[in-house]
Amino acid sequence: MASPSLTTQSFSSNIVGPDEPKLFHKEKEDENNQILQKNLLMVSELPSEKGWLSENIHLYQGFWYSTGVLNGLLILQQCFQAQPSDILLATYPKSGTTWLKALLFILTNRTCIDNSEKNPLMTTSPHELVSMLESYAAKNPMNPRPSNSLMHTHIPYTSLPESTKSSGCRIIYVYRDPKDVLVSCWHFVNKLKPNEIPQISLVEAFERFSRGVSPYGPYWDHVLGYWKASVEFPERVLLLRYEDMKRDPCFHIKRLAEFLGHPFTTEEEAGEGLVSKLVDFCSFEKLSNLEVNKKGSHSGFGFPVIENKIFFRQGQVGDSKNHLAREMIDHLDQITEEKFKEFHLINTFSSEEDEISVCPIDNVI
Ligand code: PAP
């Protein structure tokens, strides 16, 4: 018997098409521009550094943002209203966003897994189905709430709009080994860069990431913010580790379902049941091989066209050891150790014990 608690009915608002900007009237455009101008004035007074992808990144409330993202964040802080039934996926970039968007979408629309014609993930990128709040707000400043209750953000916990905390909405935070995050981010940024803009070297990316000057960085403060919130409000904030999910995805998707208040039935959990089907459908191998994710594109990150395939590279744990020199690995491990120790959070990402062959520093570009 299918779980009566979580069906397309209970989450039917999630099954809609991508969030398209509403009709653009001249009036609306003027209002949007006024908001943008006001925000840009404020942004121009913040400390800035050279961006990874954008020209500049700005330091706001202890974290670094591109101008476009910061505009979206300011709009959200001014007027975003979360609802108690909202589900907010939060991640530091390159920590498993695409995977969790797909998993959460299919988890909250379980019945469509058995009908590929009715499964939106077959034809639409997870990034279109689950809107990124700050990007959506920048496009729709007068109405910054996407139509779906399942949403995503890279914004650190301490800067989230107040209503995401007071409404009691559920927040799921996924974090990943910072070394793999850095390497994934470096690949991604260079793929996104137009040909005429010089690529960022891995040494430069490493140096900036280590200093915390990375998009939405410092990485460590990002993780610690959500970690503290999950300790304080375990019924509202759930932390998941990318590496744990890779090791035992079925176990963690069950945790997710319970956290959302819609656990699987015993039958759904058994053998080749629903849990295995959902996990299998969202695996790197399956998801990355869907036609839409191989050949499709969507708009995002301020780009009118972004190829869906650049969100799928390897999907492995520990690929950073194929790119980073031993010194770099040790340095990042040391920062993680120190930052996490302060909060009694164990550094589970240390490579100290690993018998790994790492790149000699001279070979790192
Ligand atoms: P985003 O934060 O910009 O949306 P995000 O999806 O978090 O990006 O990061 C992409 C990473 O997730 C890539 O990691 P890699 O560069 O180390 O390979 C990508 O391969 C990985 N990824 C995408 N889909 C999946 C999946 N279904 N399972 C596991 N990893 C995945």
TrEMBL record:
Compositional bias segments (type: Polar residues): 1-15
EC annotation from Swiss-Prot or TrEMBL: 2.8.2.-
SUPFAM superfamilies registered for this protein in UniProt: P-loop containing nucleoside triphosphate hydrolases
Entry keyword S-adenosyl-L-methionine: no
A Pfam cross-reference name: Sulfotransfer_1
Root EC class: transferase
Region of interest (Disordered), residue spans: 1-20
InterPro entries: P-loop_NTPase, Sulfotransferase_dom
Domain Sulfotransferase: 84-343
Molecular functions per Gene Ontology: transferase activity
Stated family: Belongs to the sulfotransferase 1 family.
UniProt name for this protein: Sulfotransferase
Organism, as annotated: Cinchona calisaya
